[in-house]
Design goal:
Residues 28-161 form the Tripartite ATP-independent periplasmic transporters DctQ component domain. This protein is mostly helical. It has helices at 2-44, 56-75, 92-127, 138-162. The chain has one domain (2-162).
Length: 171
């Protein structure tokens, strides 16, 4: 019952992470592409026409962390990629045990990140900190990172409970 619930929640979190990562990546590519074109126009007009997106570097840098966390969360359903001379020679049960151990390590890492991002979110909210160029409240950025860390923890928990030692490069 509990494992089935964790599976359902983890599946939803994987799908949301995949969608979030795809949207953020699409936005990042668009911002960078438009800024490159705007820079060409800027240089061609002798700096008379500036169409560059304000805070583009800031936007892309904050979204990069979210894309990385979302990608990691979404990719775990196919097992971890492992290039290991020893583990592949273990019996199926041994491979599952090793995989579950690494998912436990990943779960602990995700929970530590979640805890740290939560405290950073609280601190930046209390201080009223904003990003440098766009004045985005920093607690929103840390909050999104905390939610992505939580999603990673739930997916790692599911994989720790059900993994049979499958590897992403073999599947």
């Amino acid at each position: 019952m509990i494992v089935a619930t964790i599976r359902r929640v983890a599946h939803v979190m994987e799908r949301v992470s995949l969608l979030l990562g795809a949207l953020c990546l699409l936005y990042m590519v668009s911002v960078v592409g438009l800024n490159v074109l705007a820079r060409i126009v800027f240089d061609a007009t002798g700096t008379a026409l500036n169409l560059m997106i304000p805070g583009a570097i800031e936007q892309v840098s904050y979204l990069l962390g979210i894309v990385a966390m979302a990608g990691l969360t979404a990719s775990l359903s196919h097992g971890m990629i492992a290039v290991d001379f020893l583990v592949t020679r273990l019996p199926r049960g041994g491979q599952a045990l090793v995989a579950r151990f690494w998912f436990l390590v990943l779960l602990c890492l995700a929970l530590v990140l979640c805890w740290l991002f939560f405290h950073d979110m609280q601190a930046t909210y209390a201080r009223g900190e904003e990003s440098q160029d766009l004045r985005i409240p920093m607690f929103l950025i840390y909050g999104l990172a905390m939610l992505q860390s939580l999603a990673l923890a739930v997916v790692a928990l599911r994989e720790m409970l059900v993994s049979q030692g499958d590897h992403g490069e073999i599947a």
